[in-house]
Amino acid sequence: MKKIAVLIAALLVLTGCAPQDVKLVRLAAHDSFVMSEELIAEFETETGYELEILRLGDTGSLTNQLILTKNAPIADVAFGVDNTFLGRAEDEDVFDGAVSAIDYSDVCFNYDIAWFEDQGLTPPSSWRDLGDENYRNLTVVTNPNFSSPGLAFLATTFAGFETNAEVFAYWRSLRDNGVRIAGSWEDAYFSDFTRYGGTRPIVLSYASSPAAEVNEDGTAGSAALLTECFRQTEYAGITQGAANKTGARELISFMLSDSFQRSLPEAMYVYPAISATEIPESWAKFALPATSTIGENLDINSNRESWLTDWSDVFDN
Asked: Which of 118, 172, 194, 279 is the most buried (most CB within 10 A)?
């Protein structure tokens, strides 16, 4: 009997089904996902599971990877597919059941306050101003083919105009005014934005981003254009064919817990999905949500391909 038990154990190891494997929970997330060592330890202590985090690029890249690997899922849980990409993930049956909202943020343009003061130039009051000659070569946006903020801005323009012709005319005004198209939010913000040594003082980002740009004297380093923004919600869900569905449920439950939700503003500069969650006092001054949002009722999933084709026709030619 002892020999049989050893043989069974060996076979389990060879087939990747060793008993200890079920103690591992794999989380696929975008590159901006942050979970502190303390929170990881809290999750692992409370549940007995070990957490492995796979970062798979921007939201668009994350979604594409989840789709490409859906028949052999690389993770048990996926976090970061947002409402601009969720329809695509659902069409491809990426998730096993309903997803849970974890956080939200408002996609808005930010500007470098000191740069505009030094230049004696009045900042734009709206994204509609960015085709103006005064802002030539000053703006960076992200590519909507890969970036969820980029796709959110794309949706914003369709929500903000009555006709496609008006949308395309606005895009051409941006193109002709020297807008830069970055591959990801990280590239746009940390490479192109003047706050980090770049040459563009206007960047497509979030209403909460100025909370990260407070100067040493307590004054604001950047400001967001808070009208006609797009509200972006990020979700977590169990992947189809997840190897550890029980652990996956435990992880999502933890992401909805007070300790994880309270970490979100300072860790990822997003608002917690659980409305009763306490947020930092500084957010009342530097990270106000948008005063108006548009685009919530658009059918992004049905229009995605045609919109992206139209975008490429304007910006790639």
From this structure: 194
Confidence of residue 106 (pLDDT cuts 50, 70, 90): very high
Looking at 3.40.50.300, 3.40.190.10, 1.10.10.60, 3.30.450.40, the CATH number of the domain 106-230+290-315 comes to: 3.40.190.10
Please report which helix (H) or strand (E) contains residue 165, including its range.
helix 164-176
Is 299 in a helix, a strand, or coil?
coil
CA separation for the pair 137, 123 (Å, rounded): 14
Comparing CA positions, the residue from 107, 117, 102 lying closest to residue 84 is 107
Q: Could you give phi then psi for residue 232, rounded to 5 degrees? A: -110, 125
Q: Tally Cβ neighbours within 10 Å of residue 87.
A: 15
Pick the CATH number of 19-104+232-286 from 3.40.50.2300, 3.30.70.1290, 3.20.19.10, 3.40.190.10: 3.40.190.10
Average pLDDT for 203-210 = 96
C-alpha closest to that of 171 among 204, 127, 138: 127
Scan for tokens 């817990």, then name that residue.
Answer: 257
How many angstroms separate the CA atoms of 294 and 227, rounded?
9
Do the beta carbons of residue 81 and residue 99 sit within 8 Å?
Answer: yes
DSSP output for 193-225: BGGGT-SBSEEEEETTGGGG-B-TTS-BSEEE-
Is it true that 19-104+232-286 and 106-230+290-315 share their CATH fold?
Answer: yes
CB 120 within 8 A of CB 176: no
